[in-house]
Amino acid sequence: MTGGGVRSRFGGWPARVLLAVSTGLVTLAVVGAGGEWAVRHRERTRSTVPGTMSMLFYRHQRLMHGLVRGMDYYGWVHISRQGFRGTGEVSQIPADSVIRIIAVGGSTTFDGNVSGDSSAWPARLEAALNAATSPGRYEVLNAGVPGFQVFDDLVRLESELHWYQPAIILLYQGHNDLFNTLGGAARGPGEGGFDARPDEIPTVYPWERWLERHSLLYHKLGQRLQAIQFRSSGARQRGQTTAQSFDEGLGVGVERFARQLRAYLAVAQSLGIQVIVPQVVYAAETGGGGAADSVVEGWWRGAMPFAPAQVVWSGYARYDSVARAAAGSFGALYVPARDSTLWSLDHYTEGDPVHFNDRGSRAFAEHLAGAIIAMPARHSGADSGSSAARDAPPRRR
C-alpha cells in the first residue's frame, strides 16, 4: 500500500517531465561551460588581434556605454583606472614641464585593430613627439571610445576629461557621425511608424546583466548575431533607398555634425584648451599593389552595406568641409591629410576601410607629430581655410 502510494506520487509523466527538464538544464550548463572555456582559451592563446572585445564596455548612465576601468583584455587592450587606453596611472594635473594632449574620438582613435596599446596611434604619437623634441615633454592620453560621436565626446569633455587639464585635444571624429547619418537615411525617417517613447532605455534583466559581466561566450555570440543582421538588413536597405533619400539624409546629418562640432570647440575654447582637428582618412585608393577598384568598393560594401561607396565618399567630403570651416571659426588647428599613403588600402585592417593596421597607425602618428611640432605657440586659425581641392583625398587608381 505504501509502496504503491509512493509510486503514484512520484512516478508517471510528471517524473518524466522533471527528469527531461533536469537533464536538459544540466546538458545546457555543461555545453555552456565548455563553450565558455573554449572561447576564453582562444582569446588567451591567439596570435592575431581579436575581432570583437565587447567585454570592454559597460552601460553608462549618461552615454550609451563606457570603458570598464582597470580592464585587461587578454593582453591585447588595457584600460587604465582613469578610463584611458593603456596601463599607466594618470595624475589629475600634469607636471609643469609636460604638454598633455588628449586624443578624443571613436574606435579609430581607440585603435583596437593594432597589435597592442603601444601600437595605437596616440601612443605612437607620444613616442614620435618626444623623440623629435625631448624625452618626457609630451604626454598623449588615448580617450577614444568605440562608437562615440561628437556629441558623446562633448558630454565626456564636460563631465570628465576637462578634469585632467589638457593643453591640447586632438579631436579625430567623423566616421561614426557619417555612419549613423547614412544608416538613418537608408532606414528612412518614418520607418516603424509613430513611437511615443523614442530612445527609451531597454529593460535589462538580472540574468542578462550577469552574462554581460561574466560571460565572454555570451558577448561573442551576440556580436556574431548582430554582424549577420547588420549585413543582411544593410544590403536590403541599400537596394530600397533612393539617391534623393541619401542626399536629404546627408543634408540633415552634415548640419547636425557642424552644430555639435561648433559646440565642442566653443566649450573647449571656454576651458582654455587648444583643439586640433585632423582630416579624417580612410581607404580611398588601392596603393602600389595594383588591386582593382572592385577591392576597395568591396571593403566599403562590407563596412557600410546600406550605402553605395560613392555616396559614402561624398559624405566624407561634406563632413570634412564643415570640420575645416568650424576649426577656422574657433581658432582650432585643422590638419589636412595630404600624404597619399594615409589613403592607401595597405594601411588599413584587411576588409576594413576605416580602422588602421600597425602600418597605418604609425603613418598617422608621424603625420600628426609633424603638424604639432610645427604648430605656432598659439594657433590663430588664419591658415585653416585651405582649398578643398588641395586637401581632398587622392584619386583612386
Structural overview:
By secondary structure, this protein is α/β, with parallel strands linked by helices. It has a domain at 98-189 and 243-391: Rossmann fold (3-Layer(aba) Sandwich), CATH 3.40.50.1110. Helices cover 49% and strands 8% of the residues. Helix 6 (175-187) packs antiparallel against helix 9 and helix 9 (243-270) packs parallel to helix 11 (309-329). The protein is globular. The model is unreliable at 287-291 and 379-397 (pLDDT under 50).
Topology:
Elements: H1 2-10, H2 12-45, E1 57-58, E2 66-67, E3 72-73, E4 77-78, E5 99-105, H3 107-110, H4 121-132, E6 138-142, H5 150-159, E7 168-172, H6 175-187, H7 206-214, H8 216-240, H9 243-270, E8 274-278, H10 293-303, H11 309-329, E9 333-335, H12 358-373, H13 388-391
Parallel strand pairs: 5-6, 5-7, 7-8, 8-9
Antiparallel strand pairs: 1-2, 3-4
CATH topology of the domain at 98-189 and 243-391: Rossmann fold
Rg estimate, integer Å:
25 Å
Strand percentage lies at 5-15%
The biggest sheet, with number of strands, parallel, antiparallel or mixed sense and barrel status, is:
5 strands, parallel
Mean pLDDT: 86
Please state the structural category: alpha/beta
Q: First CA to last CA: what distance?
A: 92 Å
Record the strand order, biggest sheet: 6-5-7-8-9
The CATH class of the domain at 98-189 and 243-391 turns out to be Alpha Beta
Low-confidence stretches at least 5 residues in length (pLDDT < 50)?
287-291, 379-397
User: What portion of residues is helical?
Assistant: 40-55%
Number of helical stretches of at least 4 residues? 13
Number of strands: 9
The CATH architecture designation of the domain at 98-189 and 243-391 is: 3-Layer(aba) Sandwich
- Categorize the overall geometry: globular
CATH homologous superfamily annotation of the domain at 98-189 and 243-391? SGNH hydrolase
SSE arrangement, N to C: HHEEEEEHHEHEHHHHEHHEHH
